[in-house]
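On clarity, I found the account of how folds are encoded harder to follow than it need be. Since the whole study asks how a given chain folds, the encoding of that fold should be made plain. For the editor and my fellow referees, an illustration may be useful. An entry of this sort, consisting of the sequence and the corresponding backbone structure tokens, reads as follows:

:::
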Amino acid sequence: MTVTVILLGVALLVLLSIFFYYVPFFLWISARVSGVHISLIQLFLMRIRKVPASVIVRALIEAHKAGLNDVNRDDLEAHYLAGGNVEKVVHALVSASKANIDLGFKMATAIDLAGRDVFQAVQMSVNPKVIETPHVTAVAKDGIQLIAIARVTVRANIRQLVGGAGEDTVLARVGEGIVSSIGSSESHKLVLENPDNISKLVLRKGLDSGTAFEILSIDIADIDIGKNIGAALQIDQAQADKNIAQAKAEERRAMAIALEQEMRAKAQEARAKVIEAEAELPRAMAQAFLSGNLGIMDYYRMKNMEADTTMRQNIANPPISDK
């Protein structure tokens, strides 16, 4: 008899455990006490669909207490099954309602499913965020390099969170605006005297277009002077011109050497022809003697003329003494 009672008690405990697991009775009581109307059958079906009933009920209670009438159980279940974060969505809706921010349930779930933190976005709409740009390097028209750092105050744009560009795009556009502003300045001194001109110029460009943020202000935190890029470019240009001139001079020198060698070759060729002609001269004279065209007196007169010519050349061009 005792064993039977024990077995009946164990079976009853198992049945009660199974019942309370699939039918969260105490969770149902908590919902009813909080004013949320949900039936035990709906809670049982959540267990069957593997939807955490506690998460859905807590979200319904929070929404009901905050006066959000457009949040219902079916939408929360659908958002959970789609992979969304139900708790963050409800937190964001409550925060937006308290801050008078126009944020509907569909928009909040779309932002959450897009991978953005919708609760953080609502907080950023209330408390703007300050993001700092990396070092932005630009060169003024006078060739002086400036290195600037800017702090950008942004506020989340709820309507453009889905499909809008992120912080990286905002920073890139601000950096581009700073480079453009400094590059259009006549002198780096003007930039250092009035750094607020950079902020005004960048703000007028509407850099937050198509992004998930609204730029409230751009403040130049620091500007440092870098290298003299203009002087460095002039030095590089002068060095390049020098190299070009040296290359052209080397080309002319090579051409002159080639021309000199060519002239020397021609002179040697002419000298060889002269020597060859001189070698033919005795033969020609002998032939003239034999044929009677040249007499002995003619030969002596020719020798006298050669001697006279040599003497005149020596007188005209005396040898240079080493002393």
Notes: The chain is about 65% helix and 10% strand. Residues 288 and 294 are 5 Å apart (CA to CA). The chain has a mean pLDDT of 81.
